[in-house]
Amino acid sequence: MTDFPEPGTPPVPRLAADAVARALRVMPVVAIMGARQTGKSTLVQSLPALQDRPYLTLDDLDVREQARTAPEDLVRRAPRLTVDEVQREADLVLAVKRAVDERRPRSPGQFVLTGSANLLLMKRIRDTLAGRAAYVPVWPMTRREQRGDGRAGLWSELLATPVPDWYDLVGSADEEPAEWKELARRGSHPTPALELTSQDDRRIWFAGYVQTYLERDLQDLSAITEVVDFRRLMRVACLRLGNVMNKSEMARDAGLAQATAHRYLNLLETSYQLISLEPYAVNRTSRLVKSPKLYWSDTGLAMFLAGELQAQGAHLENLVLMDLVAWRDAQVDPPQVLYWRTRAGAEVDFVIEHASGLLPIEVKSTHRPRTTDAQGLLAFREEYGDRVRGALLLHGGDSTFWISKDVLAAPWWRVL
Question: H helices within 255-367, ranges in order?
């Protein structure tokens, strides 16, 4: 199956739905977080378990006024509530906390909150609802979500399958060759990915998204007086996808003071735009790079911000990462997704650290991968030995084959 749902069809299944359902059975508060327009509101309004409760949104001026002036009254409107865009009024979170603490025994699923910012990172949110809330991120749609499958790639299957059987696992998937550059240009937000059919229409949508983000969403998080400077820093960031993050260099390239650039980068991460990928830090014989790598939550938006018309290899890498991140955050016991790089130059794009072992992943846009493309994977396996289950080289071609012992080269579209 490679076709995408027709516009106007019912909401497609989302990977986060099972994680929300699990959290509703356990925690009094379920906080669903993610960038604007990733489908959070659609998700909470379509889940069967949430149909028997009022849905309030702080996009409604009357609701927001009550949240600001009488938050205690708002949270008592019904025994169970869904409240959308909760980050817009910080005191509402404190009112939710008090309402949860007043009910004994605690009632699982009492509140469902959505937010277009990470409440755990927002300084003006004075309480993180520790011990009361489960946090479920909703990321832009994976390729398989866009197709209506409601899942991410084959990561769980790869971790559960003996390495010698990977060839059959990947090769048996009923998949047809796909073009990653079009997927990168289209992006992963539901509207441009599923509803808009031309790149010009998508660029209009991206422009409106950025304008709304700059003029409204950011102002809910922090006062941004120099919007032009902020947008310039976004462009600098989107031109550095897959690179180790050097905030001082980015500040210089954007013409900003370092303190200002650092604050803006933190805001981009808080609002789920910028993705900071941490390094795998277990160091046995080599000095490792310790700074995070930079990615963007949506490749289509990143290309728009960077002014790029043609997708590059870094965009394929970004697509793979976001599939990994969406999969990770839907797991009961989330694994770590990291990268590995030594100061001598050996590197692996992604490392899944799981209870079953380590799975290093290299991404190459070439259609004909060679043994040299797997050098980082071989160095990683030599460094960490038996902890490495096997290794995966994802590429832009059509062939699946063992490129080295326990290193499977596979087309990206067979795994994502």
Answer: 258-270, 299-306, 313-328
According to DSSP, the residues that pair with 394 across neighbouring strands are 363, 410
- State both tokens at 52: 């028997």
E strand or H helix at 401: strand 401-404
How far apart are alpha carbons 208 and 255 in whole angstroms? 25
Q: Which residues pair with 134 in a beta bridge?
A: 30
Output the CA torsion sign for 285, 290, 296, 297: positive
Q: Is 105 or 305 the better-scoring residue by pLDDT? A: 305
φ, ψ of residue 82 to 5 degrees: the values are -115, 125
Residue ranges with strand state E in 15-162: 29-33, 55-57, 81-84, 111-115, 133-137
| 245-283 residue pLDDT tens | 999 999 999 999 999 999 899 989 988 999 999 999 876
- The DSSP-derived string for 363-395 is E---SS--GGGGHHHHHHHHHHGGGB--EEEEE
Instruction: Tell me if the bond preceding 71 is cis, omega within 30° of 0.
Output: no
310 contact partners, CB below 8 Å, separation of at least 6: 181
Average pLDDT over residues 116-139: 74
Strand partners for 244: 293
Q: How many CB atoms lie within 10 A of CB 145?
A: 25
DSSP designation for 48: G
d(CA 391, CA 137): 27
Q: Which residues contact 144 (CB under 8 A, 6 or more apart)?
A: 150, 151, 152, 153, 416
Question: 343 pLDDT exceeds 60?
Answer: yes
Which of 273, 283, 200 lies closest to 235, judged by CA?
A: 273
Other Cβ atoms less than 10 A from the Cβ of 80: the count is 15
CA distance 253 to 265: 14
